[in-house]
């Protein structure tokens, strides 16, 4: 039942995103949608997908079945934001939604933008599909920080890399959307599973939607293994 429900949520999401996205032609318009679904795989794909190696059709065929992180390792409360986005006692800010959001500051910022009290009620995102997709679309369309591209702009090619971006190996395309949304938990670590699993889901959906994986572009566009994160999680250590 859970599986069916999430499948329906995803389909509705596709319709919504397809209709709000006015970029380019149809095959291009489909792409952000596909990425959005794929992004559900996040850093630890196992938390979101219910397929497994010996399942019929292979693991990818089962897609993303969960609307929340299945085994969160923490409550994702960052005290640095205690003045702007204070954690509500007892609330947990683990990954939830169609394009998962994590951490009090993300729930806080998205709640502010959408006028939803997500700091007190992060669980709305796993209980209400409308909110889940509002949050996902907002996250997709808005940059993490001023001066950085949104995942959407990086994906459809609206974004023009600066010299810094080029030096950091960030170029328009799928790899950079992973950089924006997941940073160094996925990117800049070479050819790691966390990244490759997301790419595999992306390619699977490209095929499924008739776009074709060969349209996804060359390896350097598809991956972010060599990219420097836009927003590194820790201050870089002094060069050693
Ligand atoms: C869609 O747009 C892209 C980029 O603008 C172009 O390369 C491609 O040929 C277009 N496809 C169709 C079917 O018009
Ligand atoms: C889900 O969220 C939407 C948007 O905030 C709201 O209009 C709707 O009433 C909510 N549905 C339920 C069942 O709470
Ligand atoms: C380019 O990167 C350097 C080093 O990270 C930084 O100090 C500088 O502000 C960046 N320039 C721009 C225009 O982002």
Automatic annotation (TrEMBL):
Gene3D superfamilies in alphabetical order: 1.10.530.10, Endochitinase, domain 2
Which terms are listed as keywords in the entry? Carbohydrate metabolism, Chitin degradation, Disulfide bond, Plant defense, Polysaccharide degradation, Signal
One Pfam family per UniProt? Glyco_hydro_19
Signal sequence extent: 1-22
Annotated GO biological process: cell wall macromolecule catabolic process; chitin catabolic process; defense response
Which InterPro entries does the record associate with it? Glyco_hydro_19_cat, Lysozyme-like_dom_sf
Aminoacyl-tRNA synthetase: present as a keyword of the record? no
Q: Which GO terms describe its molecular function?
A: chitinase activity
Q: Which superkingdom heads the taxonomic lineage of this protein's source?
A: Eukaryota
Question: Domain Glycoside hydrolase family 19 catalytic: where?
Answer: 49-214
Its job: Defense against chitin-containing fungal pathogens.
What protein does this entry describe? Glycoside hydrolase family 19 catalytic domain-containing protein
What lineage, starting at the top, does this entry show?
A: Eukaryota, Viridiplantae, Streptophyta, Embryophyta, Tracheophyta
């Amino acid at each position: 039942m859970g599986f069916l429900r999430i499948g329906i949520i995803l389909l509705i999401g596709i319709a919504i995103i397809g209709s709000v996205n006015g970029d380019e032609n149809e095959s291009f318009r489909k792409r952000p949608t596909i990425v959005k679904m794929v992004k559900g795989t996040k850093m630890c794909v196992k938390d979101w997908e219910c397929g497994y190696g010996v399942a019929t059709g292979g693991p990818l065929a089962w897609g993303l079945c969960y609307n929340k992180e299945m085994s969160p390792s923490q409550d994702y409360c960052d005290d640095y934001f205690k003045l702007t986005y204070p954690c509500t006692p007892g609330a947990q800010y683990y990954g939830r939604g169609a394009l998962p959001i994590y951490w009090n500051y993300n729930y806080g910022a998205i709640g502010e933008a959408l006028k939803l009290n997500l700091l007190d009620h992060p669980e709305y995102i796993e209980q209400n599909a409308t909110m889940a997709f509002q949050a996902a679309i907002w996250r997709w369309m808005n940059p993490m920080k001023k001066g950085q591209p949104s995942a959407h702009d990086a994906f459809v090619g609206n974004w023009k890399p600066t010299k810094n971006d080029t030096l950091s190996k960030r170029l328009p395309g799928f790899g950079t959307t992973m950089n924006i949304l997941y940073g160094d938990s996925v990117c800049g670590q070479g050819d790691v599973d966390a990244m490759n699993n997301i790419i595999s889901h992306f390619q699977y959906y490209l095929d499924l939607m008739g776009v074709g994986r060969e349209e996804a572009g060359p390896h350097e566009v598809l991956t972010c293994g060599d990219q420097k994160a836009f927003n590194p999680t820790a201050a870089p250590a002094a060069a050693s």
